[in-house]
C-alpha cells in the first residue's frame, strides 16, 4: 500500500465480524476434501469466502484444487502454530482488508496443534473483528486406530486435535470394518465427549455447521478462554505461572499447559519431530518407476504429494500418498507450476530418498 493512501479498516462495512472456521486434523486425513465442499457450499449461497492454507512444505499443492476465484493466502514452509505463527494475524488482516469476505476458512497443516492456532486467531481478533466459529477436526479413522495401538508423539498430537474440536469428523470409514469403526468412535469419544461427531467417507458432512450465522458456541468459548489467558498479563506467557491457561469445554487435555506455556518462542514438542523434503523434478519420469518409489517409501514417511509428468503418458498428474495408499489425478495446472514432490514423515533419511529420486531422472 502506498504511503499517502488511507488504511482501510479490517472490519466489514456492515460492521459484522468475519466468521472464521478452522479445519484441523492430521496429515492426509481429508481436510482439503472437506474444504472444497465447504467452498462449493458457500458459492452456491453467494457467500464470499477467503482461504488461508498452511503447508509444511514449500509448495501448496492442495491449492491447485481449490476454485481459482476464491481469494487465498498461502503460508508455506512452516507450521502456523509455531514457526510462522505471528504471520497468521497479518495474513488474516490483509485478506480481510483486500477481499472483505463474509467468512474465512483456515486449513492448518496436519502437524499443527490447534490450540496454538486458536491462540493466534485470538491474537488476530485484537486487531480486527473476527469470530472463530468452528474448529472442525477431521480424524483419519484407520490411522487413529493404528496409532492408538503403538502410542508415540503423533498419536498424542492426534489426541490434542480431537480434544480441541468443536466438531468431529471421523473420516475414511470405508477403510474400517464395523467393529473397528466402533473402536474408533469410542477412542474419539473418550477424548472429546462434547463435540458432535459424524462418521464420513470423503469428509461428506452436513455443512450447516459452516453457515455464516451458525457455528458452535464451543469455538467462541475456546477462543475467548484463550483470549482471556493471552491478555491476562504474564500469566499465560510465563510457562512457570501456575494455571497459566485454561482451555474451553472442547479442550481439556492434560498436557495443555506444556503445549501452550511454550507458545511464545519455545519449541513445540508435539510435532517438532515431523520433517519434510521438497524435491523439484528436472523433467518427466517413468510412471512405473515412480509408483515403485512410492510403494517402497519407508514406513516413517506417512504423507507425500506432488505433481509429476509421466514420460509414458505425456500427461501431468497430481499424486497423493497417504498411509501407504496412492492416488493419481490427471491435472492441467494453472500458471507456472513445477513438477515437484513433497514428502512428510518422522526422522526419515532424506539423502537416501533424494538418491532414489535422482535415479528416476533420465
Ligand atoms: N479411502 C479414502 N480416502 C480418502 C477419504 N477422504 C480422503 N481420502 C484421500 O486421502 C488423501 C488425503 O486427502 P486430503 O483431503 O488431501 O487430506 P488433507 O488432510 O488435506 O492432507 P494434508 O494437506 O496433507 O494434511 C487423498 O488421496 C484423498 O482422496 C476417505 O474417506 N476414504
Model description:
The chain contains eleven helices and twelve strands. With 362 residues, it is α/β, with parallel strands linked by helices. It folds into two domains: 18-261, 3-Layer(aba) Sandwich (Rossmann fold), CATH 3.40.50; 274-360, CobW-like, C-terminal domain (Hypothetical Protein Yjia, Chain: A,domain 2), CATH 3.30.1220.10. Helix 3 crosses helix 7. It is globular. The N and C termini lie far apart (47 Å). The site of guanosine-5'-triphosphate has 21 residues, from helix 1 and strand 10. Residues 25, 27-33, 62, 110, 171-172, 174-175, 201-203, 303, 320, 322, 327 line the site of guanosine-5'-triphosphate.
Structure, briefly:
By secondary structure, this protein is an alpha/beta fold. It has helices at 31-44, 85-99, 114-125, 141-150, 153-163, 178-191, 217-231, 233-237, 256-261, 287-295, 350-360; strands at residues 18-25, 49-54, 72-75, 103-107, 130-140, 167-171, 197-199, 274-280, 301-309, 316-322, 325-330, 340-346. Keywords: Chaperone, Hydrolase, Nucleotide-binding.
Amino acid at each position: 500500500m502506498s504511503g499517502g493512501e488511507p488504511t482501510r479498516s479490517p472490519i466489514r462495512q456492515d460492521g459484522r465480524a468475519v466468521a472464521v472456521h478452522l479445519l484441523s486434523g492430521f496429515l492426509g486425513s481429508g481436510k482439503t476434501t472437506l474444504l472444497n465442499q465447504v467452498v462449493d457450499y458457500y458459492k452456491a449461497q453467494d457467500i464470499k469466502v477467503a482461504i488461508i492454507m498452511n503447508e509444511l512444505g514449500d509448495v501448496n499443492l492442495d491449492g491447485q484444487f481449490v476454485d481459482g476465484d476464491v481469494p487465498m493466502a498461502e503460508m508455506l514452509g512452516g507450521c502456523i502454530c509455531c514457526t510462522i505463527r505471528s504471520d497468521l494475524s497479518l495474513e488474516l488482516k490483509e485478506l480481510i482488508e483486500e477481499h472483505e469476505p463474509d467468512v474465512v476458512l483456515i486449513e492448518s497443516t496436519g502437524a499443527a496443534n490447534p490450540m496454538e492456532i486458536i491462540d493466534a486467531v485470538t491474537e488476530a481478533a485484537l486487531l480486527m473483528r473476527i469470530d472463530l466459529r468452528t474448529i472442525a477436526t477431521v480424524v483419519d479413522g484407520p490411522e487413529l486406530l493404528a496409532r492408538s495401538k503403538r502410542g508415540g508423539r503423533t498419536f498424542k498430537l492426534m489426541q490434542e486435535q480431537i480434544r480441541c474440536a468443536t466438531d468431529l469428523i471421523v473420516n475414511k470409514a470405508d477403510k474400517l470394518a464395523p467393529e473397528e469403526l466402533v473402536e474408533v468412535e469410542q477412542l474419539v469419544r473418550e477424548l472429546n465427549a462434547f463435540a458432535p461427531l459424524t462418521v464420513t467417507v470423503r469428509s461428506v458432512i452436513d455443512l450447516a455447521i459452516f453457515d455464516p450465522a451458525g457455528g458452535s458456541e464451543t469455538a467462541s468459548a475456546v477462543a475467548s478462554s484463550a483470549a482471556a489467558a493471552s491478555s491476562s498479563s504474564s500469566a499465560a506467557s510465563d510457562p512457570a505461572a501456575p494455571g497459566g491457561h485454561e482451555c474451553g469445554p472442547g479442550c481439556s487435555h492434560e498436557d495443555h499447559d506444556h503445549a501452550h506455556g511454550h507458545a511464545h518462542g519455545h519449541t513445540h514438542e508435539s510435532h517438532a519431530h515431523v520433517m519434510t523434503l521438497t524435491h523439484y523434478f528436472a523433467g518427466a519420469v517413468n510412471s512405473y518407476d515412480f509408483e515403485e518409489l512410492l510403494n517402497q517409501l519407508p514406513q516413517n514417511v506417512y504423507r507425500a504429494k506432488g505433481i509429476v509428468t509421466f514420460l509414458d503418458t505425456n500427461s501431468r498428474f497430481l499424486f497423493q500418498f497417504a498411509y501407504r495408499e496412492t492416488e493419481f489425478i490427471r491435472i492441467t495446472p494453472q500458471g507456472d507450476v513445477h513438477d515437484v514432490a513433497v514428502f512428510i514423515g518422522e526422522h526419515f533419511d532424506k539423502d537416501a530418498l533424494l538418491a532414489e529420486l535422482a535415479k528416476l531422472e533420465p
